[in-house]
Design brief:
Layout (H helix, E strand, L loop, with lengths): L2 H15 L3 H14 L5 H20 L5 H32 L7 H24 L5 H17 L2 H47 L1
Length: about 200
């Protein structure tokens, strides 16, 4: 059984257990994220597998499906939030080591974070298409509520983008003024040399 299937089975089982579903889903999701590279693609794979597992568990559960899906989504949100916090700290460390914000590694990390904000719920939405009509309707209601209230993951991504976005603007502004100063010096030296030749 591949890692994604194991993950689905674990998520399905956590719904059957029914106790502390939110923290169970958070731990399952976090465990899966810890064992993979923290790329956008891998985060989406984990979220998709957990969502499909939760859906399968909810379909045969005697618990209220709305509560099950809400708790599961909150658990996934908390886990993905941890991944975003880890990214934030990694970006801070790179910046402290003098890594330029124009560096491709930094830009790529910020781009992936920005995409994750939309992709997190979009992946859940897409994975929730499997299952019965009733389950799809339940997911739709839970996702609609979540979208209007926002996720903690999205809040953290916005804070990270704000912090590093302003740093990036500062770095670019600094480089621009340095470049402009250099050009001005070159221009004035050219003028002075022209005057000397005439003199």
């Amino acid at each position: 059984m591949d890692a994604d299937e194991v993950l689905k089975a674990a998520a399905r089982e956590s719904v059957k257990q029914g106790e502390n579903l939110r923290s169970a889903v958070r731990e399952i999701t976090l465990g899966a994220l810890r064992s993979r590279e923290l790329t956008l693609g891998e985060i989406k794979r984990v979220v998709r597998s957990v969502t499909e597992g939760v859906s399968a568990g909810a379909a045969s559960s005697k618990l209220d499906p709305g509560d099950v899906l809400s708790d599961a989504l909150a658990g996934m949100d908390e886990a993905v939030l941890k991944a975003v916090e880890a990214n934030h700290l990694a970006l801070q460390r790179l910046a402290e080591q003098g890594q330029s914000l124009r560096d491709s590694q930094m830009r790529k990390a910020l781009d992936q974070l920005e995409q994750l904000e939309d992709q997190f719920l979009a992946t859940v939405k897409d994975a929730a298409k499997k299952g019965s009509r009733q389950l799809k309707d339940q997911w739709a209601a839970v996702l609609q509520r979540t979208e209007s209230n926002g996720t903690r993951t999205a809040d953290q991504i916005e804070a990270t983008m704000e912090e590093f976005g302003s740093r990036m603007h500062e770095a670019m502004a600094e480089n621009f003024t340095t470049l402009a100063s250099g050009i001005l010096i070159g221009m004035t030296e050219g003028l002075q040399q022209g005057k000397k030749k005439k003199g």
